[in-house]
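As promised in the previous annual report, we have extended the structural survey to additional targets. Below is the entry for HNH nuclease domain-containing protein.
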Amino acid sequence: MTGNKSQTRSDATRKAVRERDSICRVTGSRVMPRMRGTNYTGFEVAHIFPLAWAVPDHAPKFPPPIQPYLTYPKLADKPRNALLLRADVHSQFDDYQFSAKPIYLPNAHSSQTTLVWWLMRFEQSGASSLPNRDQPDFNRLRCLRGPATELNIQDFDSGLMDHHFTVALNWHVLGFGTEA
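The corresponding structure token record, generated without further manual editing, is:
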């Protein structure tokens, strides 16, 4: 792959994710409106599963629920494999400095559970753009923010996010990402 974004990234996906999210899904930073249209400066569409990894030889190595995304970059470049993030958060997400894992919390007022995405830093000094970086966070639970003001909108593929979390965990905790 040459890295030429115009060959692998769809304008339709970028537009759909921008319209769907309208905020950084991790920090909650809002995209600012302006007279001539929305200002997306400083925001990027981040792919949960990297487009560069979407090749036919890799697909059988992954769990069946996410295999359809993995055969070709064109299939991976879909809104369900993407989030709108601030540019600095996008870089840290792509570098696996943090990831998200679903946690279902009991609801105190009913028998239902609430989906919360656990954002976890994998380096003590990493993911400096995450909210409340310098504050104690004893329960380590935060919500991935949904479109507009709603929380926990399941509009990205949770299997892809689970895979991202597994890669980050393997990279940092098991040492797969360290140089020999």
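The first helix runs from residue 5 to 8. The chain has one domain: 5-172. These points will be discussed at the next consortium meeting with the crystallography subgroup.
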